[in-house]
């Protein structure tokens, strides 16, 4: 068992989740990574579990396993999926699939780790939401799920405050992950429109999201709870021109 403080990060093999994992390891933590795919390289300070978080039985079994081996007082609910569609084309099956991963899995992870956090009278929970929670075309299921995650964040913050557990959310804007770049090729008109909508005039980097996650997980962040931090280059503030 690692002597480092342990943090569970869902979806930590690629993109923003990988950047979060690498930052937390650099900060001296041991990362437990729940993902469907193995990362390109597993750190000596990382325990990888192949888990499909949309499968409640598999997720609860994996959580039972890790909580028997590690004292986990920090959680990053990062795993997420998108099923792009407008209201006419959104199916209830797609909606339920998105809610299972983006919201239900987060609730299940919190439930599993709460006994350890409450016993320690210390906990840090960070939920990765999205700027899309404020509204985004063609994202009916996704935006609804991320808005739900914000409601969960605020409610958990109130319920768990007396136990010394803080709960916050982060709302990334456009971030330069492989997923984003495959859907938005550099130089494409649609990509340029996204750039034009960002007051800082560029796409964010996964490491910039990871930095805010790390700060909220810090021991010293004990008086910040129930908040949403948008890492969006100013997109949520308003128009810059």
Rg for CA atoms: 17 Å
The biggest sheet, with number of strands, parallel, antiparallel or mixed sense and barrel status, is: 7 strands, parallel
Judging from the principal axes of the Cα atoms, what is the shape? Answer: globular
Give the H and E element order.
EHEEHEHEHEHHHE
The share of residues in extended strands comes to 15-25%
Q: How are the strands ordered across the major sheet?
A: 3-2-1-4-5-6-7
In terms of quaternary structure, the protein is single chain
Estimate the mean pLDDT confidence. Answer: 95
Distance between the first and last residues' Cα? 54 Å
Helix content: 40-55%
Query: How many β-strand runs?
Result: 7
User: Which segments are poorly predicted (pLDDT under 50) over 5 or more consecutive residues?
Assistant: none
Query: What's the tally of helices?
Result: 7
Derived structural class? alpha/beta
Quick synopsis:
This protein is of the alpha/beta class. The protein has helices at residues 15-26, 56-69, 92-120, 140-160, 178-183, 189-196, 206-217, and strands at 6-10, 30-35, 46-50, 72-77, 123-128, 165-172, 228-231.
